[in-house]
Amino acid sequence: MDMINRPRRLRSCDTVRRLCRETRVSPDSFIYPIFVDESISGRTPVEAMPGQFRWGLDSVCEPVRECIEAGVRSCMLFGVPSHKDAVGSAAWAEDGVVQRAVRIIKENFPDFYVMTDVCLCEYTDHGHCGKLDGCTVDNDATLELLARVAVSHAAAGADMVAPSDMMDGRIGFIRAALDKNGFENIPIMAYSAKYASGFYGPFREAAGSAPSFGDRRGYQMDMHNRREAIYETELDIDEGADIIMVKPALSYLDIIRECRDAFDKPLCAYSVSGEYSMIKAAAAAGFIDEYRVMCETAVSIFRAGAGMLITYYAKELAEAARKGEIG
C-alpha cells in the first residue's frame, strides 16, 4: 500500500513514544495537600479519602518526609483548629494551628516549600468563608480578616499564601497587607476560577469545613460559566496574583485550556478530593486500574495547560514521573 504518512511509526516502541511526548511532567510539578489538626496526636484517617489523614502537630513532619522521599518539594497546608467562632479568629492567631505547623516544618525541613490556604471556612462556627451579615457573607468586611490571616502565615515562615475564599478584591487587599508588613517577596497563588462544586465533599470531612446552612454559590463560581473564569482570573492578575488556579480540575479542563491560552502567568490546577475519592472507590470495587487512571487523569490536566498540580496523589505521581511513566 502506498502510504507516506504513518503516525504509528512514532508509536512503535517505548523509547520513541517517550521521545515524541508533547506533555512532560516532573516530580517538581506536584503539590501535596496536608491537613493539620490541632486537637489530635499522631494521625487520624479521613474516612472519605482512603489513604489520607489528618495530622497532629507532633506528626506533621511525617507527610513532609514522605513527600521529600518521593521527590515532591512543596505542600499546601490546611488547618483544623480546636476553636471556632463567628469570625474565624483562630485563623490569624500567632499560635494558630497552621502558624505552628509552618514553624515546625520549616525548622525541620527549611528547603521544603510551604504554601498555606488562606480562608476562614475551617475556622468559623458557621462554616462559611467569611464574616456574616445576617445569612450572607459580607465581602468587604471579610477582606481585612483574610489579610490578617495571610500576614500571620507569612510571619510564621510560609513561602506562599493561597487565598481560596473567592471574595471580590481579596488579592489586591492581601497584596497590600503583605507589602505593608515587609512581605513583598511572598507570592500569592490565587484560587482564581474556583467553582461551586459537588466534588468538594470529602475535603469538607477532612477539614471540618461544611457550611452549617445554605451553600457557597453566592461567592464560588457557577459551573455553567466559562467567560466569567477569564474575567475572574484577569481581575486577580491585575490585583497582583503571581500564580493563577483552576479548581476543580477534571470537570474544568476547558477552563484550564482557556486560562492557559489567555494568560502568561504560571497556572495551577487542583485535583480535588472528590476526584481522588472516585478513583479510589472505583478501584476498590475492581472497576478500574487505579494506577493507570491516576496517571491518565493527571496527564490530562497537564495536557490541558496546567503547569503544576495540587493533588492527593502527589507522591505516587512523582514516583511515576521519575520512572518516566508520565514524565
Describe the structure.
The protein is 38% helix and 17% strand. It has eleven helices and twelve strands. The protein has helices at residues 14-19, 61-70, 97-108, 139-156, 170-180, 201-207, 227-239, 253-262, 273-284, 290-304, 314-322, and strands at 30-37, 43-45, 53-55, 74-80, 113-118, 132-133, 136-137, 160-163, 189-194, 243-247, 267-271, 308-311. Strand 10 (243-247), helix 8 and strand 11 form a beta-alpha-beta unit. The longest helix has 18 residues, at 139-156.
List SSEs in N-to-C order: HEEEHEHEEEHEHEHHEHEHHEH
Instruction: Give the number of DSSP strands.
Output: 12
Q: Helical percent range?
A: 25-40%
Q: Tell me the number of helical segments per DSSP (H or I, 4 or more residues long).
A: 11
Main beta sheet: 10 strands, mixed
Q: What is the terminal separation in angstroms?
A: 36 Å
Mean pLDDT: 94
Helix and strand content put the structural class at alpha/beta
- Report the C-alpha radius of gyration, rounded: 20 Å
The shape is: globular
Poorly predicted sequence stretches spanning 5 or more consecutive residues = none
Strand content: 15-25%
Fold topology:
Elements lengths: L13 H6 L10 E8 L5 E3 L7 E3 L5 H10 L3 E7 L16 H12 L4 E6 L13 E2 L2 E2 L1 H18 L3 E4 L6 H11 L8 E6 L6 H7 L19 H13 L3 E5 L5 H10 L4 E5 L1 H12 L5 H15 L3 E4 L2 H9 L5
Parallel strand pairs: 1-3, 1-4, 1-12, 4-5, 5-8, 9-10, 10-11, 11-12
Antiparallel strand pairs: 2-3, 6-7
Helix pairs in contact: 3-4, 4-5, 5-7
Brief characterization of the structure:
With 327 residues, this protein is an alpha/beta fold. 38% of the residues lie in helices and 17% in strands.
